[in-house]
Design a protein that fits this description.
The structure holds two protein chains of two kinds.
Chain A: H1 7-43, H2 47-59, H3 61-66, H4 74-101, H5 103-108, H6 110-115, H7 123-149, H8 154-181, H9 185-208, E1 211-212, E2 219-220, H10 229-235, H11 250-267, H12 291-319, H13 321-325, H14 330-339, H15 344-376, H16 380-384, H17 390-424, H18 427-442, H19 450-455, H20 474-482, H21 485-497
Chain B: E1 13-17, H1 24-32, H2 53-57, E2 60-63, H3 75-86, H4 91-100, H5 114-126, E3 132-136, H6 144-159, E4 163-168, H7 171-177, E5 180-185, E6 188-194, H8 195-200, E7 204-210, E8 223-229, E9 232-237, H9 242-250, E10 254-260, H10 264-273, H11 276-286
Parallel strand pairs in B: 1-4, 1-5, 2-3, 3-4
Antiparallel strand pairs in B: 5-6, 7-9, 7-10, 8-9
The chains are: A mainly alpha, B alpha/beta.
Chain lengths: 498, 290
């Protein structure tokens, strides 16, 4: 097995590099699960409440998209609320880890240095998978312990943990394939995340189009749910049957992916992917040749992703108007209080728009933080050496953030109006109402972007010989810590080239 | 920086020499108005770079020593972008430079090697016809062929009457291109002048083969580091003392004589020679700092 020579050493290296990061992932997710489950156990202490919540979750197509109802218990309720979120996070953790130790290594040149040693062809891939699979297993166990500590039955708790961990395992193996296909870190993570998005949509729509059984608290999904790893974990029905054999489906899937990844590894050249790098444009279009154009170009990918998410969010929220009309009790109070109207539909729309505006605010912060990473990565220097002042450059980014936020709110409003119109009729009227309200919010997106702008205000780059620059160099690091994968990889890459 | 005097005359190619960490990049960033000076005067093309930044930047182009480019833009897009942000680009020159530097503008920056990223910055700078070019170690990563293309490009800019400040530690490049040089050391200008002027300040190395022993030269004022290899004697002579020392030599019956002026490298080493240990320490302290 000379093709695996060095796997142990590379595994130790990868584990050493990721020990803090992966520990934080596992601990963070477990604590989140434990705390939320204990909270629901406390809130839904009467069986009457549980039954009502479970019936609502089973009846509402919007909620069925996000979680599958299996019964009237706290554990089953936690499955509805937490499971999809956790699988997405576990899958992202796995994708990022595998790509970090495979494609990113090749992109930054680390792998070249390692591969020149006595290291087998598959050793790097194997090491990345070992580290990631161990992290997924640890996550499964930690989630089980966490649920059990929160007072749930041990059998269901560990089934829940395993259902999440199994999705992590499958996506580790998917990322092992995409890392061979794409020649860039971003592409490898992105296409694995695309598979994850498809798995989410397949599971969600299968649950949405399923039937509620006579008890009214359990949804039987349609058959496509069996095509999605996220669906498998739901069909395992933790806290309502614990069908462990469903998880056996993960084993052949993972093995096929690993075999495919190994095959691709042996068929491709170092540093390249199976999908050839596309040639770009030799000339910059007119729209790129300004500070605003550059900011737009740098953000348009993120904006497109956000737009899709906001459109989907709007469709789901808009589709729920029918259920909302029949909401009574504390739920109705909440809408009326947050929405500021006793007309339940108006109150509902207003509260949904507030949530959408909040999401747009997060986007604004993300866009403005890009200014800090542009400076930290050294991309700002050549721009400032041209006839572009710091102010103009910052205005370009700010304008881009504002326009992006407006587009996101428009996307949300369109989604909500289309779905709401399908249920209640009058799409055009709903669109006018929602867009009008959205314009009010667009003037005041939240959370407020000021802290981000203050953080990334122009400052001279600290240079080793400069005695004048006394600002703390830890500032950009703080910013970087708050960003996930990409920014970090960006700086790693920049360092690698130095 | 500590009391650096640097004057670049219009139309000259001025070499800016110094080891790593001497303050070359800091100086150039102050000239660009990216860093604020906390003392002294700075004037670039008659303007204050901190206050008249934008107006000034229309008239100059900058090539950084460490080129970081947006990984998802192509080289061609970056050239157009930086050129447009500066205020315009000369299309004919752009095409000509791309051809001479053999740069593929359709590749994305993440796929470029270090040398190719450097070429992108060079094409972006020289495609604009500006009055001043600030070049901060612009040829790191270029192969010898491209290095000679770069030298041609700088010479042509100089012939058009443009001013170039070339920061470098590649002495052959500076020797080939520059009319005057400034040597900077620990933030201070150690020496400024034309090569001829600088050489006057430095000892000439003499190797002579004589019939009789030249050991007596040791006591002649202005002679240093006398060594013997058979009948060959090697020593260095202080500037201004050469004529008198030669007169002494003639008396020793010279059979062959080689006199070489100091190369820039010797000049450079002499300037840092006293402090080589210190410089080496300083460099290791800076290792890893981008």
């Amino acid at each position: 097995m000379t093709t695996l020579t060095g796997t142990m050493a590379l595994t130790r290296l990868a584990a050493r590099g990721d020990r803090v990061r992966l520990t934080l992932w596992v601990l963070g997710l477990s604590v989140f699960v434990g705390v939320t489950t204990a909270l629901w156990a406390d809130q839904l202490s009467s069986s009457q409440d549980l039954l009502q919540e479970a019936r609502l979750a089973a009846a509402s197509p919007g909620i069925r998209m996000l979680g599958l109802a299996s019964g009237a218990s706290v554990g089953a309720y936690a499955m509805i609320r937490n499971y999809v979120l956790l699988t997405v996070l576990a899958a992202l953790m796995s994708i990022f880890t595998v790509v970090r130790h495979t494609r990113q290594g090749e992109e930054t040149g680390r792998s070249e240095l390692l591969g020149a040693g006595a290291v087998g062809r598959y050793a790097e891939l194997a090491a990345a998978l070992v580290v990631t699979l161990v992290a997924d297993a640890a996550l499964a166990v930690a989630l089980g312990v966490s649920m059990a500590v929160a007072g749930q039955p041990a059998g269901g708790s560990f089934a829940f943990g395993a259902a999440v961990g199994a999705v992590g395992v499958v996506f580790s193996c998917v990322a092992a394939v995409t890392a061979q296909l794409s020649s860039s870190t971003r592409g490898a993570s992105g296409s694995a995340a695309g598979v994850l998005g498809a798995a989410f949509l397949i599971a969600g729509t299968s649950n949405m189009s399923g039937d509620v059984d006579p008890t009214g608290v359990r949804v039987e999904s349609t058959w496509p749910a069996w095509l999605s790893p996220i669906g498998w974990g739901q069909q395992m029905r933790p806290f309502a049957g614990d069908n462990w054999q469903v998880l056996l489906l993960c084993i052949p899937t993972a093995l096929i992916c690993v075999a495919l990844a190994a095959l691709l590894t042996s068929r491709r050249d170092f540093g390249l992917g199976m999908v050839p790098q596309r040639q770009g444009h030799a000339r910059a279009p007119r729209t790129l040749r300004t500070g605003f154009g550059l900011a737009w170009r740098l953000q348009r990918g993120a904006l497109a992703g956000w737009c899709l998410a906001m459109l989907g969010f709007g469709l789901i929220m808009g589709g729920m108007v029918e259920q909302v009309q029949s909401v009574t009790g504390s739920g109705r109070d909440w809408y009326e209080r947050v929405g500021g109207s006793t007309q339940i539909l108006d109150a509902y729309r207003a509260s949904m728009l507030q949530m959408a505006a909040m999401a747009a605010g997060v986007y604004v912060v993300q866009v403005l933080l890009r200014m800090a990473s542009e400076e930290a990565n050294g991309y700002l220097e050549p721009v400032l050496a041209t006839a572009t002042s710091r102010t103009r450059w910052a205005i370009g980014h700010a304008l881009n953030a504002a326009i992006g936020a407006a587009i996101l709110l428009a996307a949300f409003s369109t989604g909500a109006a289309v779905a709401g119109g399908a249920v209640l009729g009058g799409t055009a009227h709903q669109l006018r109402t929602l867009l009008g309200a959205a314009i009010t919010h667009a003037r005041n997106p939240r959370p407020t972007p000021e802290p981000a702008a203050a953080r990334s205000r122009p400052r001279p780059r600290a240079s080793p010989t400069s005695t004048r620059v006394k600002e703390t160099p830890s500032d950009p690091d703080l910013v970087r810590l708050r960003r996930t994968g990409h920014a970090r990889r960006g700086t790693d890459r920049a360092r690698g080239q130095r | 920086m500590d009391g650096l005097d640097l004057t670049v005359a219009a139309g000259e190619v001025h070499g800016f020499l110094g080891p790593n960490g001497a303050g070359k990049t800091t100086t150039i960033r102050i000239l660009l108005g990216l860093l604020h000076r906390d003392g002294g005067q700075v004037s670039v093309l008659g303007a204050d770079p901190w206050r008249d930044t934008v107006g000034l930047h229309r008239r100059l182009a900058y090539v950084p020593g460490e080129v970081n480019l947006w990984p998802n833009l192509t080289g061609g897009e970056v050239i157009d972008l930086l050129g447009s942000l500066r205020g315009g680009i000369d299309e004919r020159r752009r095409a000509d430079l791309l051809e001479r530097f053999a740069l593929d503008p359709t590749k994305r920056c993440r796929a470029y090697s270090k040398g190719n990223r450097q070429k992108v910055a060079l094409v972006a700078a020289f495609a604009s016809d500006v009055e001043l070019y600030l070049l901060d170690e612009p040829t790191s990563g270029l192969d010898p062929l491209m290095e000679s293309v770069f030298q041609d490009v700088v010479r042509q800019a100089s012939q058009r009457g443009r001013t170039v400040l070339l920061s470098s530690h590649i002495l052959s490049e500076v020797e080939a291109l520059c009319t005057r040089v400034t040597i900077v050391r620990a933030g201070r200008a150690a020496e400024t002048g034309t090569f001829a002027e600088l050489r006057h300040l430095t000892r000439t190395t003499v190797v002579a083969e004589t019939a009789t022993s030249a050991a007596c030269l040791e006591h002649v004022p202005g002679v240093h580091d006398l060594t013997q290899d058979g009948t060959h004697w090697e020593f260095s002579v202080d500037p201004g003392e050469l004529n008198r020392v030669l007169a002494e030599l003639v008396a020793l019956d010279v059979r062959s004589l080689v006199s070489s002026p100091p190369t820039l490298e010797e000049l450079f080493l002499r300037h840092y020679g006293d402090d080589i240990a210190g410089v080496a320490r300083g460099e290791s302290d800076l290792a890893g700092v981008p």
